[in-house]
Design brief:
Layout: E1 2-9, E2 18-21, E3 25-29, H1 36-47, E4 69-76, E5 82-85, E6 88-90, E7 104-110, E8 116-125, H2 138-147, H3 159-169, E9 176-182, H4 186-195, E10 201-205, H5 216-232, H6 234-262, H7 264-268, H8 301-315, E11 324-329, H9 337-350, E12 356-362, H10 365-369, E13 376-382, E14 385-390, H11 396-406, H12 413-419, E15 423-427, H13 430-446, E16 459-463, H14 469-480, E17 484-489, H15 498-505, E18 512-515, H16 527-534, H17 546-556, H18 564-577, H19 581-587, H20 592-604
Parallel strand pairs: 3-12, 3-13, 10-11, 11-12, 15-16, 15-17, 17-18
Antiparallel strand pairs: 1-2, 1-4, 4-7, 5-6, 7-8, 8-9, 13-14
């Protein structure tokens, strides 16, 4: 399951209903005390309620007695079925527990004394006859089934079967509406209890922990490793449990048999009973110690944080990046700028695993400047009400507001003045920059009329898609200087990028934009090189999703580094480095790419 949205209302500073979009990496920015950490702690309460309990002090101070505090999460990529027990299998869709968009929205409401009720906000039947079936007991469902003479079309011992029969009997008259479906009792509670195993794990690392002997900033990463290792051995551990239970029950029954010889009545009142599940993670305790057995948590906070990020880096190629959300408060705390860059790179590598998400907070200009603009969520106050704004690259006003608030300013003014930059080349991402700089160098070696983009001080390359906040400020600065631009966008079936090309080409200032004729730049690489580097055998065409196809093949072979982002990186660095002018002529028979470089040369001259 994947978290796509957070919902808050009457939780600390969030007095109004607030939705916060969550992506692969989400960066919550704002001034001190704006409400950034509140979001992370609300999620901790949602996912880890047994440890991070809701407190009455978490209610917004302006709440009335009948106001509820809300912490909600919206998920995509739900399981296809929910196994209540071996004889009872259902689904979220079949129980009408998904919203109008086909997502699962779980709402936890807390009343004025802190009592929690769990709901699914769903597109659910509201017809009076079937509006609350998940809250009904087996006997109540049987009565409804008999009332509608449905005994022959369902199993009276299965609540799931009876609900399906009742809903089906109303046909198109279910009156589906958006409503809160109670998951705190009867069948609703059974489903919610089972859903827990599908929810992402949530690990929160704060910036201001005390240095106790059991400092969880040092412990938590290792305990996550323990939890994951136990999960991988769950089948074996369950077999151990069953063997232990069977042996204990055998001894207990034998004891009762012997007792029966003394007193039949006393023996008949006794029976062996397995009281509770074993808590395996309590059986393992690890600590990290330094020289002379000095606990790591007695070292400086910067060192302790480096241990945490080293753990993150160690998880990239492991199952510890599987179905988990890592939330890190102010990851830049006590870190050298060079380490901050490594931390950002580590986060980007972690999210290349489709089952890992990162949520961070920051108010530091340098760190915020390295983060993708589309990851930014800006927390601020308007009319004394906390609000969260989602940033996109086209929202220049909001991006400028963030830059002004955090103090992120252009870093290119001196470079532009010293080197007389003449052309800004705008591409979709960092891989495109690698592709163009490497290929231009190769072509320049045999034809000096083609500029060597990586070594020409008159050229700056900036990725627009997924660009960082610092890149946006730099580009905004250069645009205001009136420097010519050359844009390259991937071919798109729906014409999304054509509008950007048309806008750039209509400026009349010499700027120019192109759409690739093939799907993307990888489709211009030579087929033989791709097969050789990746050890595969594919035949490309102009519209093939090359990185996606290769990634699927490598995953089917259970190879490492099979994620699409890593494949794309290898294509745009290792494979393109093997290209020659002759090979490019074979793949680009119309001379499209050489034409790009010649246009750039004209703009430079």
């Amino acid at each position: 399951m994947r978290l796509v949205k957070i919902i808050l209302k009457n939780y600390r500073g969030y007095s109004e209903y607030t939705e916060i979009d969550i992506s692969d990496i989400t960066t919550i920015v704002g001034k001190n005390d704006a409400g950034k950490s509140t979001v992370l702690e609300a999620l901790d309460t949602f996912f880890n309620e047994s440890r991070a309990k809701f407190s009455i002090q978490d209610r917004n101070v302006h709440c009335e007695d009948d106001d509820c505090t809300v912490i909600g999460c919206v998920f995509s990529e739900m399981p296809n079925e929910i196994v209540i027990d071996e004889d009872c299998i259902t689904s979220l869709q079949g129980e009408y527990l998904l919203d109008i968009d086909g997502r699962l929205t779980i709402i936890k409401e807390y009343n004025n004394v802190g009592k929690m009720t769990v709901y699914a906000r769903a597109n659910h039947p509201c017809n009076n006859g079937v509006s609350d079936l998940l809250s009904k007991k087996n006997t109540e469902l049987k009565a409804l089934v008999r009332q509608r003479a449905l005994e022959n079309v369902c199993n009276l011992n299965s609540n799931v079967s009876m609900r399906r029969a009742l809903w089906s009997s109303f046909g198109d008259e279910l009156d589906l509406q958006d409503k809160n479906v109670n998951l705190s009792k009867e069948s609703g509670k059974e489903i919610w209890d089972k859903l827990h195993q599908y929810l992402p794990k949530y690990a929160l690392f704060k910036s201001d922990r005390g240095s106790t002997d059991e400092d969880s900033e040092a412990q938590d990463p290792i305990q996550l490793a323990v939890a994951q290792a136990l999960f991988e051995q769950s089948e074996q551990l369950n077999q151990i449990k069953q063997r232990v239970v069977a042996e204990v029950e055998r001894v207990a029954n034998s004891t009762i048999d012997k007792l029966r010889e003394f007193d039949e009545n006393l023996a008949s009142s006794l029976s062996p009973k397995f009281k509770k599940e074993p808590v395996w993670d309590k059986a393992f305790s690890f600590s990290l110690t330094g020289d002379e057995d000095i606990p790591i948590n007695k070292r400086g906070s910067g060192v302790r944080r480096l241990i945490l990020f080293s753990f993150f880096r160690a998880t990239i190629e492991s199952d510890l990046c599987n179905n988990i959300i890592y939330a890190v408060e102010e990851p830049e705390t006590s870190q050298h700028p060079n380490f901050q860059r490594i931390i950002v790179q580590t986060f980007q590598q972690m999210i290349s695993n489709d089952n890992c998400q990162i949520i961070i907070t920051t108010h530091t200009p340098g760190f915020a400047g390295m983060l993708p603009t589309d990851s930014l969520r800006y927390v601020t106050k308007e009319n004394n009400i906390t609000i969260v704004k989602t940033v996109n690259h086209d929202n220049a006003t909001l991006l400028q507001q963030i830059c002004d608030t955090l103090g992120v300013y252009p870093m290119l003014s001196q470079e532009v003045n010293q080197n007389a930059v003449k052309v800004v080349i705008c591409v979709e991402g960092p891989n495109d920059i690698s592709y163009l700089t490497i290929l231009s160098r190769i072509l320049h070696a045999s034809d000096d009329s083609i500029p060597d983009l990586g070594n020409d001080s008159r050229v700056i390359l900036i990725p627009l898609g997924g660009g960082t906040l610092q890149q946006w400020t730099n580009f905004n600065y250069l645009r205001n200087l009136g420097i010519k631009e050359f844009h390259i966008y991937d071919y798109d079936d729906d014409g999304h990028y054509q509008q950007y090309c048309d806008t750039v080409n209509s400026r009349g200032d010499g700027s120019s934009a192109r759409l690739t004729r093939k799907r993307e730049t990888e489709n211009y690489l030579h087929n033989d090189l791709i097969n050789s580097v990746f050890g595969i055998d594919i035949i490309m065409d102009d519209r093939m999703d090359v990185p996606g196809t290769i990634s699927s093949i490598l995953k089917s072979r259970h190879e490492e580094n099979s994620s699409q982002s890593k494949v794309k990186n290898k294509l745009n660095n290792e494979v393109v480095s093997l290209m020659t002018k002759e090979l490019l002529d074979e793949t680009d028979t119309e001379g499209e790419i050489v034409g790009w470089f010649r246009t750039i040369k004209q703009l430079l001259d």
